[in-house]
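seq/struct pair 1
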Amino acid sequence: MIPRNIIREHVIKALEAIDARALPPSRKSTKFVLVFNGRQYPPKYVLSFANRFANGEELNPSAFSGGQETNNFLRRLGFDIEEKTLAETRTSGKSKSSPNKVTKTQKDYNERCPECKDTVETMLKKSYGTVESNYKFTIGTNPEDFRDTPYYDDLKRIFKNLQDYRGYKDFVYKDTLPNCDYFVQNPGFVVEFDESQHFTIPRKISLQNYPRNLKVGFLLSEWGALCDKINAKDNDPPYRDEQRAWYDTLRDFLPELTGNLEPTEPTVRLYSEEMQWCSLNPNNPDDVEKFKNIIESRRKDLNGWVATVVLQSDSDEDYSNDGRMDALPPIVDRIAKETSGNGVILFPGGWFRTDKENPSTLYDWVEKTIKNILSKPKKRNIVVCVGIDGSVDVEGYSHDQIGISISKEGIEAIGRKFHPAPQESGHVKLAKDKDYLAKEDGKSRIFELNGVKYFMCVCYDTYGIRHKDFTNPDVDVVLNLVHCFYPRGEGPSGESYFARHGFAGASKQWKCPVFGTAVFFNRSIPERWPTGVYWNQGDKSTQKWRYADNTIKSEAEFKMNVREGAVLVKIYDLRKE
């Protein structure tokens, strides 16, 4: 039997490992091959090897069958399985499942690939119906053309900043905006396919000056980070970067500049190298769904903010529930002053503890006290997420690990840990049937604020999202209440590992931002440790993910002293994530 915890990432790791070594002659396939990036692999051997990454050892070939069992399992993970004879006789790299589609290897592929843009157009038509490419909107290009629009002052400021950057005052030589890449007629939005030349310092300057209430169909922080990373330069003509940045700005503002005319929805942007777009098969329903999910996730409007509270504790013994609760009012008050509107404040897992008793014995006290704290920011709806541990066993493990979310109206959500750390196996009571959607005390672990759906994870749960290949239950943000990190040799210390495989892994799986917090006992908070992560690395392994790849940046951060030590607070604006 094939272990069900083998996921796509394990298979890709196996393919990479097989590429780096010789294939054993005895493991070659005679009937079927797995085709990936233009190469062919024996499906059964690939699964045997993938088990190394999932369960620590190669799966004995006698433990499962090849053929239908293996092929169906790999197909469910999104891999192409072909008959070997057909795969070997394909001409010009054409695949069986898509006779008119050339399969490029990674070596052949580059961002100028014309098939990528053709594939994007076809996928848009499959997803939304009528789509027009190279579409013309009759609007001007001079800031004065928009004097009667709500964003005239913003556009004028952006235009002047671009002029001042290198002193090029005249970089607009067209009376009307150059054509857009694609226009989706229903529901009415533009899709732009950005190649590397679009990511420049002038483009970053324009993005940094977008008004907060402008709705766009991409992550401003991600596009800004790509401008820093790529830093493209096009000096033909010398002002070309400013010109391109200005035209891109106008395309982003299009819904606000055309009144009630088309387009009516925010402009969506795709980056040419965020994935190999021509690898998608328009005749494969799974690929079409994958593509549409990318578009829809960018069209969704996120409102509000998330504040992460990380604690540097001087001792893992000398703290109490009363002391932890006393720290909340000044923290909440300061965050309320630093923000506007509604948002979420995320505290670490196990912020409160009950030792031998069930965490539910603290619910009333925690709810009543936090409700009172949240009643002070008038006309604001703030949700506090905090962890409660309890029922500690003789070995020191908390049998019950709970996350609870409270607003000024009361308890909004409760979630029990559903995926244990390896050392916790047998020590922790998990959610019913290990179900990541199971209710706790009649409450869901999902809550909604400003139309944004939040999913609470207790510590190692984010690993479970990826390892168990759980499907996103239509949530927009993951909140991870991590417990703690210690100095090396004194307890759990792998905060970078957690960020890479917990935060980034869950974000990769569910295509949404992940925010996390923790307590650092007897050690300082690492300066670069990310408390907000958004995955934008395509099929890249989380093993290769680095902090520099992260595109989420906090809008503000501050430190505060508390009785137990100090807290570091980072505030993230969801409209920019």
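seq/struct pair 2
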Amino acid sequence: MDHARFEDPEFVKLYTEGPGRFVPGYQVMQRVAAQLIAERVGEIGKVLVLGAGGGLEIETFAREYPKWTYLGVDPAGEMLEAARARAAACGVSAAWVRGYIFDAPDEKHDAATTMLTLHFVPDDGGKLATLRAVHDRLKPNAPFILVDLCIDKRAPDYERAVDRYRTFALRSNAQPDDVAGTIERVRNLLQTVAPERNEALLREAGFKDPQLFYAGLSWRGWVAYA
């Protein structure tokens, strides 16, 4: 994974505007994710956030469930600092790990999320290893939220999916240069897979009962249980 833009302070400043312009229903999706976590966790719990850079989901979760605490994991230092500042502004308790899930402590958490992150990981054993490492850091039956871009590069409707992604971003007032760069990364950098593949990976990693709770164009979100 190329982390260069996630270490660019100017990119990080603008990042908070990005997801909502590229991910349909982004904020509502986060609120629903918090609700699904709370079904098992309640008002007090510790949530592992893989890909925590920016801190957007922590900010949303903090508004919904202010007593949750967090372990945020991200390999990009600038993004992690942005998340740290956002969490502090929300008044939540959080610890941070700069690195990958394998660098996180082995302690068991009440829930976990990885949003807009797994599609950076190659499906050469890397996705499965990542999901297994998350599973290993969860208490039994703890909820796990996975939200991922699911454009199957081998599918006959690949170009249509990419075009819809581009059109949504442009009509959401994303800058044309940003959209062009994002589409280039979708084509040449992101390791996206079909939704069915992500469900299979969840099961193989040990998660039970993966349930689709979100779909927006080619984005998909599941809740599953350790």
